[in-house]
Design a protein that fits this description.
The structure is a homodimer. In chain A, strand 6 and strand 7 form a beta hairpin. Chain A has a 7-stranded mixed beta sheet with strand order 6-7-5-4-8-9-10, with helices on both faces. Chain A contains 11 helices and 10 strands. By secondary structure, chain A is α/β, with parallel strands linked by helices.
DNA sequence: TTATGTGAAAGCGTTCACAGCC
DNA sequence: GGCTGTGAACGCTTTCACATAA
């Protein structure tokens, strides 16, 4: 990814990834403020609305430029404009979704996408019962048409919501056709060439991280003498465990 | 959150957050290996399967203990056991879902939860047409019963998939009843007391981060003289923009 | 000889604290 | 007086490189 980012190097090079990930949060906080007719805001107030430290907010904004007024704060509209431009609000992004199970269908209907400038222009699935179905006015295409659908829509961003086994295959075909940004909901590590950006959202993993903390709160990862076997852990492992003692 | 973590301090204190977030990834890679009847694996091979650096993998595992054999590698089953215990695989976690729109319903049906030891024990929604519906054998309760549902099930982990405006209110009620881990899909910053862990999944934000990178690849955040107004950006902002020049 | 486990070094990200400007 | 913008300090994460053990 590093070589790819060097290759790009546009006008404003070198905004840290961590900052980029927070820009959308600021953007939402700001639009909410605007709806309340608040025109000016200080870094500490905006920071609280965004759930971050005020020093962090100022540093983040400083990467974009000096858009505040000392002694006063930031002009909400102007800041929205400047951050919005960075995040690509000045254009509509065509997006295609591959895999229309429960999750894929929910994503296709998700209002949070269209309200932020993303437009689902195509959907693709293997299951014959899905193909031909209409979601939000767009017809689901067959997986075989994946290539023509991409070139036809010109989408550079794709969402993968297939079962894990299919994900890498689909990914390869997407990249082959020029997709350069992928949001991956499949529980697999995707391998992509330089220049392609992948973000992974693993719902099971998120819960497992919570479970880790939960266990800690309850009294730690007890290295108890007798293991309690449950559906969560495959049976043969329980046997293995006892053998190890 | 820091004071909360100090208060906990169980047996194995001080595994870095970044490591914890990767444990589930290792766990899945390992279980896949086991299904292929691979019993032993080196750090570099496992690292590749998990999509990380081999030095990173070794360092991560070293926080849990010395479970490898020098010159050989790791015993897959034993490692699954050890990591699994850390992540809480040794027990079933009851989880409740609040908000059963498209996303909430998809989550309720999501197989990746149950396969990892999470059991949806209750679901809650305000909409009368949702209440009483059965998903995976569990009936959707009315929002008014939220408190009794939590105490009845003893769930410590909750998923919020409500509209943004309702999220903080629901969150407060959850915390009030003893929920200490929350997975938040609502596009809002949640405020919680110390001792409560929140993880946020913002789907729109993920796409915006991709859009940022996409824009960079296409040639940068053009500070172009004429702004192209689109549905993505509210109209009044376009006016503002021109006025600023 | 091979591959783990781990101090030490390098790289990032966050926070501090204050100079600079309104 | 008040708040931004930012160098410097700090802490966390990753990577390196090698001593250590099978």
């Amino acid at each position: 990814m590093t070589p790819a980012q060097n290759r790009i190097a546009p006008s404003s090079k070198g905004i840290p990834e961590a900052t980029i990930a927070r820009l959308p949060v600021y953007l939402r906080a700001l639009t909410q403020l605007l709806e309340q007719d608040i025109c000016t805001i200080s870094s500490s107030e905006l920071a609280e609305a965004a759930g971050v430290n005020s020093a962090q907010l100022r540093k983040d904004l400083s990467y974009l430029g000096s858009y505040g007024t000392r002694g006063v704060g930031y002009d909400v509209e102007y800041l929205i404009l400047k951050i919005g431009r960075q995040v690509g609000w000045s254009q509509e992004w065509p997006v295609i979704i591959v895999g229309l199970g429960n999750l894929g269908t929910a994503l296709a209907n998700y209002a949070g996408f269209s309200s932020r400038g993303f437009h689902i222009v195509a959907m693709v699935d293997v299951a014959p019962e899905q193909v031909g179905r209409k979601i939000n006015g767009v017809v689901v295409s067959d997986l075989g048409e994946l290539e023509s659908v991409i070139t036809g829509t010109g989408a550079a961003i794709a969402v993968i919501a297939t079962p894990p086994v299919a994900a890498q295959l689909v990914c390869d075909r997407l990249v082959e056709q020029g997709v350069t940004s992928i949001l991956n909901f499949a529980a697999t590590v995707l391998t992509v060439p330089d220049g392609v950006t992948v973000r992974k959202v693993d719902l099971g993993q998120e819960l497992q991280i919570l479970a880790y903390h939960e266990q800690r709160k309850a009294g730690g990862a007890f290295d108890c003498p007798t293991l309690l076997p449950t559906r969560a852990m495959p049976h043969f492992l329980v046997a293995k465990e006892n053998e190890m003692k």
